[in-house]
Every structure is written in structure tokens, then in C-alpha cells.
Specification:
Length: 446
């Protein structure tokens, strides 16, 4: 239902909570932010606080897959910013699965470069925030699937055809489907990448199964034949096999995570976590079942998200400006993201769920974050676009008790525009000296 799209215009927290009442939306809010500064147990691991930097891709690696100068600069800023968890951006496990020629990729011949950046993150955190505030660092492992562009041109790898997405992602009707044998080989590449990440000093890895990249798309492969499709068992086989194999290879002292979609917002039988009769309604039955299985297999942290930036970006990133005007108020999108994370967290209280959807809330985000943690709706709160714009948001929340309005992301979407145009991504507004020229170059903006 169209509840009336509006851009952010709130001057006080009370104005925003009144808007929630008008929209008949219930979201916990707390003015006591002390809960965000408490250490968070994640199985046998611990985050020094409840704030996390999401895995935001810069597409600024060197061509050999190693961190480039802007990659290093970004993590220097995150390191000094005080977040308890730095969820290191997507790293390709196979060359053909890169989202661009400049996506990070880990291999035997470049593992030392990743060790250097991990050591650098910890060193900066130690010097800036002290020994009690060194963050956990997870590497996100990915294969881009239908969105693969290893040479900056479309080279899709798909588990099944999808009439909703094929035209949008420029997948032709004669594009071959990845075989079961090829998926088995790819499982091994995820394991190899995890072993390299462990050698580089990461605390753990996550398997990227969100936003309709390959592992995510397999979850909705209702129309695929063979052992990786059709039934729930078949569609979850890929991510569960990888989880088992990484746990066996890396041992119990390596943190396992996952970032999964809880709702695609794509009609059944082509969408995951979607009501079969109403695409606008989530059905969390299968996502909850998958989260439970992942926990049983040793996953101790789960980053909960939705949608795909290539099809319905307002679902995973409520915004003020984008390529279209959504048929819902952004607060409805925020509420859906918070609700989904809360359902998983309440059902699996020993799992550390990282919530998302907070950036649109600007300077009022900490009060919703605190409300979520206090109500058991998430154990950690992640910020993505906000971390691009405002890398020291955590320090301001933890030490100053607030986020500064002038430093907040304004959800204008320009960081995503650069990425989609084939450039390197960052905040064009708040980090203008670096990224405004790149926006002008890649987006042909005068």
C-alpha cells in the first residue's frame, strides 16, 4: 500500500516517532544509548561494542585483486572510527565471479597483501581507540553470479533463468545455466578463500547470500532441476555445503558468518522469503529455517538484509533520491528491515544478528539502534552508506552520545550511481574532495 513517499524532513526525534504513529508502524526507540557501548558476545568471540561497519564495496582494488590506495584509505577511516565489528567488503573467490575488474579477490599469490591490511586495521584501532576496542574483522566471500563483470562487461553466471531479472540484468535467453558439477567445484573455491582469509589474520568469514548474487539466487531456484534446486533442501544445499566444508577446513576457532536476504521482493516462484500470493509481503518461514540450520552448523553471526540494489534498491536501502519513487514511505522500508532481523534474533537468541536499515534515520538512528538491542531485535547494528559518509559515527555515538546531523549520510544514492557506472564508490557529499571528481567522471555530471 502506498503510504506516501516522503524525503527525510524531521527536526526532532519526537517528530519522527509521531510519524510512526501516523503510519501505524511500531519500532522500539530508546534514548538510553549505553547498551550500544557494551561488549557483545558472538559465540566464543566478542565485539567491543554493538556497532558494525557493513561490507560496503568500493570497487577500488588493484587489478590483481589486492587492496588499492582508496581501499586502504577507507579501512583506515573505519579503523579509527571505533566500530566493534568491521565487516570487510565482498572478496571474490573466483575471477569469473568478480562484480568488476576492480573487485577484491584473494588468491595464494596475494594473501600477504590482505594480511597487511588486516594488521593495519588492528594497528590503527589500537593506536586510536586502545587495546579494549580492537574490532572483529570478517571477510565477506562472494561470487557475483548474474551480476558478474570481471572485465567490466556483463558475463553472467546464473543458476536458473528468471524472467523478472533477466532483462534488467541483460541475461539472454540462451545464457547457459551453471551445472551441478560446476557448483561443486565452486564450493571448494569458497573453502580455499576461507583458508586464505584465515592465514591473512581475519577473525572469520561470511558467505554472501544476499542481494541476488549467486548464493542468494540459488535460494530462490524453485525452477531449477537437479540437486541444487527445487526443494528447500536443494536450494539451500550450496550455502550449507560451503558452511560445513569451511568449518571442517578452518576449525572451531575461526568465526563463521553469513549475510542473507530475508526477503527478495521478487514474485514467487522467482523470489525468496516472499508470500506466494502477494510479493509485497515477506514470508520468513524459509529464511528462518535456513538461519536455524546455519546456526546448527556453527554460524554464530548473521547479517540480515533484503532486496537487491539492481532491481528494488529501496527495499535494502530506503532512500531520499534514487532512480524511481517507491510506493511506500521510507519508514515502512526501515520497519520491514528491522522486523525481519528481529524475527530471526528472537527465534535464535544465541545467534548474533546484525541489523540493517538504519542509515535513512540520520542522526536519530542511535535511538532506534538502542531500541532494537534492548528489545532483543538484534545484537549488533550495522551501518553501510553511513560508514562511507561518516566513518567515525561509532566514536561519536559511544563517546559523545549522539550522531552529528551535518556528518550523516543523506541517502542521495550517488555512491551507488558511481558503482553502477563502473567507477569506484564512496560518499560524493561528505567525502567530496575524493569522490566528487569521480562522480563527475563516471556519471557524466557537470
Amino acid at each position: 500500500m502506498n503510504q506516501g513517499f516522503q524525503q527525510f524532513h524531521y527536526e526532532t526525534l519526537d517528530e519522527m516517532t509521531q510519524e510512526l504513529v501516523r503510519l501505524n508502524i511500531s519500532i522500539p526507540v530508546s534514548r538510553d544509548l549505553s547498551v550500544l557501548s557494551r561488549p557483545v558476545s558472538i559465540g566464543k568471540w566478542k565485539s567491543p561494542n554493538a556497532l558494525a561497519c557493513h561490507p560496503m564495496e568500493g570497487s577500488d582494488a588493484n587489478l590483481d585483486g589486492t587492496p588499492g590506495p582508496l581501499t586502504i584509505r577507507r579501512y583506515e577511516r573505519f579503523s579509527a572510527g571505533g566500530s566493534g565489528l568491521i565487516w570487510f567488503e565482498a572478496v571474490a573467490v573466483a575471477e569469473e565471479g568478480k562484480a568488476s575488474s576492480r573487485q577484491l579477490a584473494i588468491r595464494e599469490d596475494n594473501v600477504e597483501a590482505f594480511k597487511e591490511i588486516v594488521d593495519h586495521i588492528r594497528d590503527i584501532s589500537l593506536k586510536t581507540n586502545g587495546s579494549e576496542h580492537i574490532p572483529l574483522i570478517l571477510m565477506q566471500l562472494t561470487h557475483s553470479g548474474r551480476f558478474s563483470k570481471p572485465h567490466d562487461t556483463n558475463e553472467p553466471i546464473i543458476p536458473c533463468h528468471n524472467p523478472v531479472l533477466d532483462e534488467r540484468s541483460k541475461v539472454n535467453s540462451d545464457t547457459p545455466i551453471i551445472t551441478d558439477d560446476e557448483l561443486e567445484v565452486l564450493e571448494g573455491k569458497f573453502v580455499q578463500a576461507a583458508l586464505l582469509a584465515q592465514r591473512a589474520g581475519f577473525d572469520g568469514v561470511d558467505i554472501k547470500a544476499c542481494h541476488r548474487y549467486l548464493a542468494s539466487e540459488l535460494l530462490s531456484a524453485f525452477t531449477r532441476e537437479g540437486k541444487y534446486g527445487g526443494s528447500f533442501e536443494g536450494r539451500t544445499r550450496f550455502i550449507l555445503n560451503i558452511t560445513d566444508r569451511i568449518r571442517e577446513a578452518c576449525g572451531p576457532d575461526f568465526l563463521l558468518g553469513a549475510r542473507i536476504n530475508l526477503y527478495d521482493g521478487i514474485p514467487y516462484p522467482y523470489g525468496w522469503g516472499v508470500d506466494k500470493d502477494d510479493v509485497n509481503k515477506p514470508d520468513y518461514t524459509e529464511p528462518l529455517a535456513l538461519a536455524s540450520l546455519l546456526f546448527q552448523k556453527g554460524v554464530r553471526i548473521l547479517n540480515a538484509t533484503m532486496g537487491t540494489p539492481y532491481f528494488n534498491p529501496h527495499v535494502n536501502r530506503p532512500y531520499d533520491k534514487g532512480g524511481y519513487i517507491p510506493d511506500e514511505h521510507p519508514l515502512s522500508g526501515v520497519a520491514r528491515l528491522l522486523e525481519g532481523a528481529g524475527i530471526i534474533q528472537h527465534a535464535l537468541p544465541e545467534l548474533a544478528v546484525v541489523g540493517t536499515g538504519y542509515t535513512w534515520l540520520r542522526e536519530f538512528a542511535p535511538y532506534f539502534a538502542s531500541g532494537a538491542v534492548l528489545s532483543g531485535g538484534a545484537k549488533l547494528i550495522g551501518f553501510g552508506r553511513e560508514a562511507f559518509a561518516y566513518p567515525d559515527y561509532a566514536k561519536d555515538i559511544l563517546n559523545g552520545g549522539a550522531m552529528m546531523k551535518t556528518k550523516c549520510c543523506i541517502t542521495c544514492g550517488k555512491c551507488a550511481e558511481i558503482l553502477r557506472a563502473g567507477g569506484t564508490s564512496g560518499c560524493v557529499i561528505k567525502d567530496a574532495s575524493v569522490y566528487a571528481p569521480l562522480y563527475k567522471k563516471f556519471c557524466n555530471n557537470s
